[in-house]
Write a structure and sequence with these properties.
Distance between the termini: 53 Å
Low-confidence stretches: 1-24, 412-432
Structural class: alpha+beta
CATH superfamily of one domain: Outer membrane efflux proteins (OEP)
CATH class of one domain: Mainly Alpha
Largest sheet: 4 strands, antiparallel
Mean pLDDT: 83
Strand order of the largest sheet: 1-2-3-4
Number of strands: 4
CATH topology of one domain: Outer membrane efflux proteins (OEP)
Order of helices and strands: HHHHEEHHHHEEHHHH
Oligomer: single chain
Strand content: 5-15%
Radius of gyration: 37 Å
Length: 435
């Protein structure tokens, strides 16, 4: 059997043995990409593992005894010349916390678990926003590749027209050289945009946190919806999961402070013992012990808890101010970007394709020189690239706005979130793939 036939047989065998999903894997939608990230992203998995540890600490804190009872035993044998006797004793000791230390320790552990839950929610917002932003950048990059590819085709046609006119004696060979240069530049630009698209796809893979990432075929972006009034969005900042996490951490620090203050009262130890001396006398009794609090050893812990409480309150104020500033910036940027997109849609983009066809036809008929055509064509290409850039900026502003308010993408109603699928079954394709 020839090498070619062997290769063909191996290829057919591999295709038959391949699983169906590998033969035709449908491209991921944006919702699916975000879901993949929220289920498998390493940062989220690490935080979920930390939550298991804190849940274990909470279970330990809920125990009624600070430590296990202590059982001690003693056995002694006396060997006198006239008699042999035995002494033995068993004792049981247990330490008890007083002053509400246990309740404060439980309260602190509960608040730490709650804080981590809100940290998880905040990280979900960040991961979802990162995937959406990377997806939007990939969609813009793919759009730029499409424009560059179209320009290659137009310049190839232009070069053919220039060669035909040169053969007919209508233009000099300079037109052929200029058209060939324009074609080569368009091909170079397509390669450049293809590299940028590959980098954007790799960025999306990193944002999702799943490697290898199933294929994603983003649809062309449409303008994002206008934002709600700024005052309405500012009211949502107080419900941001990051602020809620800091509030739970502050309450945990306050519980630590209360526990440290309660620990100034020393723990009470209760003991009981039973035994016998000289094999005859049986002894039994109970005992109480309480350390004398001459020195308060909790001063350092109390000071640290107070400082942590103050630090967390200041951190919450700082985060609230940063979120408000980010929200105002994103709101203003989105409003400006939407105005720019409206200008593109109404004044710039309509008729661009017709205009390109007309100037190419004008050059073909000798009604326009090639230099003017290439300058005009470059302006058209720049307008299309600028439109894609404006779309990307608008969506980035919208994503920043959602990040500042702590909105969960998959819980957001409408075409920007998963709830769109709950209106009438599956959403439209544009709804599934707009970030």
């Amino acid at each position: 059997m020839s090498i070619r036939k062997k290769s063909l047989c191996c290829t057919l065998l591999a295709s038959l043995l391949a699983p169906p999903a590998a033969l035709a894997a449908p491209p991921l939608t944006l919702n699916q990409a975000v879901t993949e990230a929220l289920e498998h992203h390493p940062r989220l998995r690490a935080l979920e593992a930390k939550r298991l540890r804190l849940a274990g600490e909470l279970a330990a804190a809920q125990g009624w005894l600070p430590d296990n009872p202590e059982l001690a035993g003693d056995w002694t044998s006396r060997n006198d010349p006239d008699d042999t006797t035995t002494d033995w004793e068993l004792s049981l000791r247990q330490r008890f916390e007083i002053g509400g230390q246990r309740s404060q320790r439980v309260a602190g552990a509960v608040q730490r678990v709650a804080a981590l839950d809100r940290d998880l929610a905040a990280l979900r917002v960040e991961v979802g926003a990162a995937v959406r932003a990377a997806y939007a950048r990939l969609a813009v990059a793919e759009g730029r590749v499409a424009v560059a590819t179209e320009m290659v085709g137009l310049n190839e046609r232009l070069a053919a027209i220039a060669r035909a006119r040169f053969a007919a004696g209508d233009v000099a060979d300079a037109d052929v050289a200029l058209a060939s240069l324009a074609r080569a530049e368009a091909m170079r630009r397509r390669l450049e945009e293809a590299r940028a698209s590959a980098a954007a796809r790799q960025e999306l893979t990193l944002a999702v946190g799943v490697n290898p990432l199933p294929p994603i075929a983003p649809t062309p972006l449409t303008p994002p919806p206008p934002p709600p009034p700024l005052a309405e969005l500012q009211a949502q900042i107080d419900h941001h999961p990051g602020l809620a996490a800091l509030d739970h951490q502050r309450q945990a620090a306050e519980a630590d402070l209360a526990r440290a203050q309660a620990a100034r009262l020393p723990d009470l130890t209760v003991s009981g013992h039973a035994g016998a001396e000289a094999s005859r006398d049986t002894l039994a009794g109970i005992g109480l012990s309480l350390p004398l609090p001459f020195v308060h050893r909790q001063q350092g812990e109390i000071g640290a808890a107070r400082a942590e409480t103050a630090r967390l309150a200041a951190a919450a104020d700082q985060l609230r101010a940063e979120l408000r500033q980010e929200l105002e910036r994103a709101h203003a940027t989105l409003a400006t970007a939407l105005e720019e997109l409206a200008l593109f849609e109404s004044e710039i983009l309509p008729g661009l394709d017709t205009h390109l066809a007309r100037i190419h036809r004008a050059y073909e008929l000798g009604e326009m020189d090639l230099t003017t055509l290439t300058v005009t064509q470059a302006q058209v290409v720049a307008a299309r690239f600028d439109h894609l850039q404006a779309l990307g900026a608008a969506w980035q502003a919208r994503i920043d706005l959602d990040r500042a308010t702590g909105a969960d993408f998959l819980a957001t109603p409408g075409p920007n979130g998963k709830a769109a699928a709950q209106r009438n079954g599956e959403p439209e394709e544009s709804e599934r793939n707009n970030p």
